[in-house]
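As a warm-up, study this chain.
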Amino acid sequence: MSDLLDFLSWIFTDRGPTDLGGLVFDFACRPSFYVYFIAALPAAALLVWGVLRLAFPRGSRLGPPRWGAGAGLLATLLARLSMGAVHMAVFEVFRNLSSDPADLIEARSFPIANIICAPLLCLAGYFILKVTARARAADVGLVARGGGRNFARGLLLLLALLPLVALLAKINALFLNTVGADMSEQRVVEIMRSETSPLFLGLMIVVALLSAPIWEEFIFRGVLYNGLRRSLGRDEAILISALIFGFIHGAVISFVPIFLLAIFLAYAYERTGSLITPIAMHFLFNLWSVLLMHLT
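Now compare it with the structure written out below.
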């Protein structure tokens, strides 16, 4: 039992071996780790499959998209550029009003820029699609019917996903550490770890739990994924949108878990036809990340 608890602690925290050499040493000293490690991946995958099988409808609930890959990619690019431009503008305003170090100003301007920009991006994106492609709210998954059920489905699927994501993230970190790759975290994670002001830390948490899940799901699933799906097909759209979502978060250490998460975000969106499901998953994933960051 103690070996099992140590194994789970290693998976879900920063404690334990950090490279493949340390992992092999731990396995050599504690053979039961082999059993847990070999059994963990199929058990986690089976849990995810069971949730999808039992809790989610079969087949697609999305209608034919009204725009293609070009419009989806352009909207995603413009959203990122707009967020960056607003961040820079807020940074310049803060720098002119404060004598604090530039790094601190940059960190504290990020959540404000995100909170300002997120609703504008969603409104602008929907308005452009409505004018250019005659899109309706349901075309991007903005449907209220069955909202509670779809929210619960998202939470259930993410809870089932956490062991699989955590295990693959740990394997990815072991490999990167072993080969000496860049292990720096996402900039937003570094900001949250170093923030000392309760006000700005609270704003960062609001962004992580509310703002980011809503606007990122609207852009990456509602707009980008739908456009790719029309031009390339479902499976190709899931993979390419997940790759873009992983790369755009800008940290090698987090690419594998974010890429895997994005695959299931798109798949859950496809199966329910509602953005509420991936928003719920995104919210719970960020909540888990924030709690893990501060607990470890």
